């Protein structure tokens, strides 16, 4: 910051700038931060996430004023005290509940955009890692908050998730007991989850958001063409393909905010339960440790992981699969090593693989909401295989490989599917007849990608990337 200019600046802003770098901070991160000129619809979601974070913090503060973190009073404080006795309490609660779901919808769109345009590639690997830490913290925040209404579904859903830690060899039961604060889920658990949900995790989220924005502004925003605008500057050091974030994108973001708030308020006033998905009807029943619901599932945005968990007959394998999902998502910058960022210039099968990864995750979420019948569990198992296959194929499609290498990849992957099926039969999770009816799903997808790459390598090969951003 230029001290001499700051000292000469008159008025209240000059007084502030002499004590705090407000003006220079605004210039660096807003008015003189140059963003690519070709942002599209997919770039609305970052600013919307900040808006929802603010909404969640403000509504959470008001809810905390009236909530009772006690097993005897929690359900009453939410469903009677906040909903009926507090003026406007119902509105604040629905804002918070639907805000949580909105947060995950926006995060998933934000991550999908990052996958499409290669926002995890050099020099943005650290940006992706911080974003993934944000996602993990958000999942933890949602899980801790789910128990607080103390309804039947939140009580038993939390029981199921906490019991997963018990599957960890040697130390699992001790960890589960430490999380509960007791041998069973009760008031100590509620106290701990309330403290984590209201204080600890939100603090981590705010810090990570701050770091995420700093990391973004350090390397610059990516764009739909995947071209680094900082590599082409004029004599004044201004990117030729960039425009100031303010006022051009702040004005544009106002449109996104208006559309989002219209949908958000519409749901609050007309469908606050989200068709029974956002607010499960069983959560309007007080928690009862002596009565297990016929179907237990977590919040909708965590049901893909629940479908993966129950796809395996062994709890330890289910927990290992959940850990593998997060690890693979952290490793995406190193799994996809192609120098080409945007899907606009990637092979057709690379685009298909991203779509299949997203579709299988969405379908697993749907399957996780369904009863644990043999059909839904079997489909969850198959789409779990497809979901993990997309990461393996991501490595394959880094470059065009020889015909022999492609055949070896196909043999290894299909052999792995058959070997896992044989193990499933050996532990009597499914019969060969049931498995053979659906084995074509993972093998068919792998065969289409690898067979297509073997017959026509151009379907996998990258295209030439333009030197400058395409307007």
Automatic annotation (TrEMBL):
Membrane topology term: Multi-pass membrane protein
UniProt keyword annotation of Magnesium present: no
GO CC terms in record: respiratory chain complex III
An MF annotation (GO) of this entry: metal ion binding
Cytochrome b/b6 C-terminal region profile domain residues: 235-408
Keywords: Electron transport, Heme, Iron, Membrane, Metal-binding, Respiratory chain, Transmembrane, Transmembrane helix, Transport
Domain Cytochrome b/b6 N-terminal region profile: residue ranges: 12-225
GO biological process, one term: respiratory electron transport chain
Binding positions for heme b b562 per the UniProt entry: 96, 197
A Pfam family it matches: Cytochrom_B_C
Keyword Transport: yes
Protein residues bound to heme b b566: 110, 212
Family: Belongs to the cytochrome b family.
Function: Component of the ubiquinol-cytochrome c reductase complex (complex III or cytochrome b-c1 complex), which is a respiratory chain that generates an electrochemical potential coupled to ATP synthesis.
Subunit structure: The main subunits of complex b-c1 are: cytochrome b, cytochrome c1 and the Rieske protein.
Designated name of the protein: Cytochrome b
Naturally occurring in which organism (per UniProt): Acidihalobacter aeolianus
């Amino acid at each position: 910051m230029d001290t001499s200019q700051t000292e000469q600046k008159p008025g209240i802003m000059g007084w502030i700038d002499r004590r705090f770098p407000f003006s220079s901070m605004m210039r660096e991160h807003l008015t003189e931060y140059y963003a690519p000129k070709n942002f599209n619809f997919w770039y609305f979601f970052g600013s919307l996430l900040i808006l929802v974070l603010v909404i969640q913090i403000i509504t959470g503060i008001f809810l905390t004023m009236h909530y009772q973190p006690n097993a005897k009073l929690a359900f009453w404080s939410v469903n009677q005290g906040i909903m009926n006795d507090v003026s406007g309490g119902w509105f604040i609660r629905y804002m918070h509940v639907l805000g949580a779901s909105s947060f995950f919808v926006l995060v998933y769109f934000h991550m999908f955009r990052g996958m499409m345009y290669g926002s995890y590639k050099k020099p943005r690997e650290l940006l992706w890692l911080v974003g993934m830490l944000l996602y993990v913290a958000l999942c933890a925040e949602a899980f801790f908050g789910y128990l607080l209404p103390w309804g039947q579904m939140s009580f038993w859903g939390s029981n199921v998730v906490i019991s997963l830690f018990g599957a960890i060899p040697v130390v699992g039961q001790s960890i589960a007991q430490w999380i509960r604060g007791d041998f069973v889920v009760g008031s100590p658990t509620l106290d701990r989850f309330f403290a984590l949900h209201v204080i600890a995790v939100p603090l981590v989220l705010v810090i990570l958001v701050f770091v995420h924005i700093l990391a973004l502004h350090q390397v610059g925003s990516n764009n739909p063409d995947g071209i680094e605008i900082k590599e082409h500057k004029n004599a004044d050091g201004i990117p030729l393909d960039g425009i100031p974030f303010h006022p051009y994108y702040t004005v544009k973001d106002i449109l996104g905010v208006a559309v989002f708030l219209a949908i958000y308020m519409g749901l609050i006033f007309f469908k606050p339960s989200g068709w029974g998905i956002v607010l499960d009807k069983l959560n309007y029943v007080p928690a009862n440790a002596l009565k297990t619901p016929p179907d237990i599932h977590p919040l909708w945005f965590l049901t893909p992981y629940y479908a993966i968990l129950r796809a395996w007959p062994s709890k330890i394998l289910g927990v290992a699969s959940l850990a593998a999902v997060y690890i693979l998502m952290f490793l995406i910058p190193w799994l996809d090593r192609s120098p080409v960022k945007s899907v606009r210039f990637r092979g057709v099968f690379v685009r298909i693989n991203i779509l299949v990864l997203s579709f299988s995750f969405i379908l697993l979420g749907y399957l996780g909401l369904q009863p644990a019948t043999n059909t839904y569990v079997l489909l969850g198992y198959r789409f779990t295989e497809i979901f993990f296959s997309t990461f393996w194929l991501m490595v394959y499609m880094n470059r065009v490989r020889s015909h022999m290498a492609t055949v070896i990849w196909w043999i290894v992957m299909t052999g792995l599917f058959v070997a896992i099926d044989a193990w499933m039969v050996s532990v009597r999770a499914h019969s060969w007849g049931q498995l053979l009816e659906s084995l074509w799903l993972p093998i068919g997808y792998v065969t289409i990608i690898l067979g297509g790459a073997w017959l026509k390598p151009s379907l996998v090969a990258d295209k030439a990337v333009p030197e400058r951003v395409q307007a």
